[in-house]
Amino acid sequence: MCELSPDCSGDEHCQLVLRNLETGNRTVEYYCKAHLVLRVWEVEQNDGLAAVEATQL
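Predicted structure:
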């Protein structure tokens, strides 16, 4: 997502760990800081996902 966007700050990336509330599986996604905030908001609106951790890389 972020590589294609001109709004990204290319040097500050974050790792977002998500948990599927039905299966318990975790996935890792990578975003710039600007898009991380948007993605966390999207996850909060989704009843099937939970944000577990966000870490700046």
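Summary: The chain has a mean pLDDT of 85.
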